[in-house]
């Protein structure tokens, strides 16, 4: 956590590294790790930084540097992921004020995601320059959006502002993820497309274990971790720890611990983590230690140890409201006044 906190700017921005690029998805992941470590004020500052930069249509730029947009593209996974961070933050800190501040921002982002949903139930990866959804849907991004919509439904129940359109959207999206591989672009050489439907809770139980077993030998390098791409001799820390999260979801914690242990060769002396290793050359590549790699480690360890209440987000995705219901486990009543924006 200290390595992540060291990269945060005074205004709350949480980039890959100080002075480097910032994208909304990875910034949220890094903020979640700060919440796990008890750095709630820092996490809230990162979320407020993002909230202040949301566009009127609910989107963010795909990339920022020093607060300026450097890639203006509108991508659905960036629009949706603050919902995951906000629900995670609620589990970690029970900060009602922060939930109240972020709820209108989450709502605008997920409303955009729903507008980008295609007839197949999958969600377009980006908007075209004319503002219409692209026909292409990406499986990893859609699995992340499945998790985001479910977190959004949970938040809606918490604040007393039900969103039935989100419930319909997540039901259709889950069906597409489980039954219609043709709805998504073929990126099966990437490990994220393999494990992310399990990590996000779209595929569970025996189906999850079967999915992970089917491509285990394609992606896992014993003793080193998981490849990012099946046909490259390159293991990466974030993908390895995300695989560990998927293994926890699938009820295989021992295998998850093995993966977290296997990627520790990427740990730097200051507690940060290198992105990856080209093991054929025994070379770290790229030569960077981004906040999101360290964050993936923290989230995986928390899910395994159940050290914080927020671990349930990844360790037990069934605890989220099922599609088609707005019941929120553990919440007795809506937060007062939070349904208005």
Mind explaining what this structure looks like?
With 341 residues, the chain is mainly α. It is 50% helix and 6% strand. The chain is built from 15 helices and eight strands. It has helices at 2-5, 24-36, 40-52, 76-80, 82-93, 96-115, 139-159, 164-179, 191-199, 205-214, 216-219, 237-249, 253-262, 291-305, 312-315; strands at residues 21-22, 63-65, 68-71, 220-221, 225-226, 234-236, 276-278, 283-284. Helix 2 (24-36) packs parallel to helix 5 (82-93), helix 2 (24-36) crosses helix 14 (291-305) and helix 9 runs parallel beside helix 12. The longest helix has 21 residues, at 139-159. Residues 326-333 and 336-341 have low confidence and may be disordered.
Globally, the shape reads globular
Average of the residue pLDDT scores: 94
Q: Rg to the nearest angstrom?
A: 19 Å
* β-strand amount: 5-15%
Number of helices: 15
Could you list the spans in which at least 5 consecutive residues all have pLDDT below 50? 326-333, 336-341
State the major sheet.
3 strands, antiparallel
Q: Strand-and-helix sequence, N→C?
A: HEHHEEHHHHHHHHEEEHHEEHH
- Read across the widest sheet, the strand sequence of neighbours is 1-2-3
> Termini distance?
33 Å
Q: What structural class is derived from the secondary structure elements? A: mainly alpha
**Helix share, percent:** 40-55%
Please give the number of β-strands.
8
